[in-house]
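Hi C.,

You asked whether I'd gotten around to modeling the 355-residue construct. I have! Everything is below, sequence then structure, no commentary in between.
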Amino acid sequence: MHSAKVAAQIRVQIRRFSGEVSMGLPKTAARLVREVIYGVQSRGSVRLSEIARALEEKIRLKKMMARLSRQLNRPGLRKRVRENLLALAAPRVGAETLLVVDLTDVIKPYARKMEYLARVRDGSTKKLGSGYWCCQVVGLERGSAEVMPLDQELYSQEAPGFVSENDEILKAIGRVSKATQGRGVWVIDAGGDRQKILKVLLNQGLHFVVRQRGDQHLISGHQRKSVQEWAAGCRRQHREVVVKETSSGEKVYRVEFGFRKVRWPGRTEALYLVVVDGLGPNPLIRLTHRKVTRSRKSQWRVVESYLGRWRVEETIRFIKQSYQLEDIWNARRCSSVGCVLSTKVSSRCSTCIVF
C-alpha cells in the first residue's frame, strides 16, 4: 500500500513538472514528454525500449516504440523543451550562483557505424576513443548540495554544421546568459582560458572564474610575464584543509592560496589571479575579474568555485551510471539482432538514447 501511494505521488509530480517543460507543445508532444520523463525515472534508462515497457500499455511493444519515435522526431520539440526548462530554472540563478560549464564525453568503444562518430577523450581512462561530446551548464550555490541543470547539447565534430568547441561553449553561455539576464558566475575549466571565450565574457560584462594555462601572458604593473611566472612569485597568504568525498572514502587536501592583480594585454579591466597549491602536482591557477582583496574570505570564494566543480563531476558520473547514458545505438545502421524498429518508421532503434 505504501509503495503504491509513493508511486502515485511521483506520477503527480512528474505530471506537474512535465506540464511546465512542455508548455507550447501540441497535446501529443506534451504527452510524449510526460511519458519519457516517467519511463526514464521508472526504468533507470534512456533507451526507448525500456521507456516503452515502463508505460505498460496494452499494445505491442513495436507499435508503442514507433509512436514514441515519431513524436521524438517532431521538429522543434527539443528546442522548446530546452527553452522551457531553462526558463523554469533561470529565476533561481542569483548573482552568486556558480554556472559551471562542463565538457563531458559519451564513449562508444565498440561502435563502428554510428552516424558522425567522432574521436573523444574518455574522461575515465584518459585515452582517446570513439563517441560524442556533451557541453552542459549546471548551476549550483556555494555551500549547497543541490545542482540545477540549465543547458545541454550533445555534439560531434564530424556532424554537418559543427564549427568548433569554442562555438559550442559560447552558444551555451549565450542561451543561459540571456535567460538569467547576466546573473551568476561562470566557472570554466577546460578551454576557459581561450582568448575567444574570455573576450566574450569581458565584452558582455559577465562574472567569471576560469582556469589559466602557464603559457598565457598577463600584465601586472608595467611588466608582462607568463601566467606561470606570475604564479611562481605570488605569495600564498592563507591555508585551508579541504575534504573531498570519493568512492573509496574521504580524501584530505591541505591547500595554500594567494592572489595577484593583473590585466589582459590590450585591455584595461582589472583582473585577478588566484593561485592554489595542494590540489595537485602543479599550482591551480584561476583568473577572475571579480574584485579580490587580501582577505581570506575574498580569495576563498574563488577557490570554492573550483571545488564546486567536484560536485558537478560527481553528479554527471552518477547520472551516466544510473541512466546508462552510454548505452546507445543508431537504427539506420544498427546491425544488432532483434532490432524492433524498421528504418522506414524511424531513425531510432530499441536501444537509442532519447535526447
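If it helps when you're writing up: The chain has three domains: 2-75, 82-203, 212-321.

Thanks,
B.
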